[in-house]
Design brief:
The complex is a heterodimer.
Chain A: E1 4-6, E2 11-14, E3 19-25, E4 32-38, E5 45-51, E6 54-58, E7 61-66, E8 71-76, E9 85-92, E10 102-103, E11 107-112
Parallel strand pairs in A: 2-11
Antiparallel strand pairs in A: 1-3, 3-8, 4-5, 4-9, 6-7, 7-8, 9-10, 9-11
Chain B: E1 5-7, E2 10-13, E3 19-24, E4 31-37, E5 44-50, E6 53-57, E7 64-68, E8 74-78, E9 87-94, E10 105-106, E11 110-114
Parallel strand pairs in B: 2-11
Antiparallel strand pairs in B: 1-3, 3-8, 4-5, 4-9, 5-6, 7-8, 9-10, 9-11
Classes of the chains: A mainly beta, B mainly beta.
Amino acid sequence: QKEVEQDPGPLSVPEGAIVSLNCTYSNSAFQYFMWYRQYSRKGPELLMYTYSSGNKEDGRFTAQVDKSSKYISLFIRDSQPSDSATYLCAMSEHGGSQGNLIFGKGTKLSVKP
Amino acid sequence: DAGVTQSPTHLIKTRGQQVTLRCSPKSGHDTVSWYQQALGQGPQFIFQYYEEEERQRGNFPDRFSGHQFPNYSSELNVNALLLGDSALYLCASSFAGRGSDTEAFFGQGTRLTVV
């Protein structure tokens, strides 16, 4: 079993839809959870950074962490064609400066106008 | 504020050759990590540099080596290139000083093709 599992999709939704992206993990020591967006042939762009369990909201994006279930989610409200990209979940035992990040494979999202 | 910058953006090398990739961290950051991202996969951790020393290393062979300079910039060297080394190489920077523990920001990557 891989440390981080992420459904690679692809996922196709109409503009304005609510998108739900998920990852599961096996290492209970993970405490830091991140979502990155990666456009084709570009580097990952940090979207959300959360510590431990709970919710965090930033504009149209909401990140949820459920450590008891080892499950994290990213919700995108009112999705736009510009949201079309690959979304990577990442996690680590320590913060970004002290630990290596373990990534999922990424979910490819396409938002159709 | 310049973000993380990497050079070159693209590179083609022949099997068996050696390559050096470069990274300048985001202003104010002191820690640099390198990742390899194969096509269709998530990035995989190669190693991390802090205070000019390798602090952590992932599951990569000794052909992969690095260096961090006093200005916090970093190089990734790969010797005896294999076809399987073809990938997007990503540099990420963060700040670890004074007990801080910030998120990692990535550069645009260097796409290496080994032929």
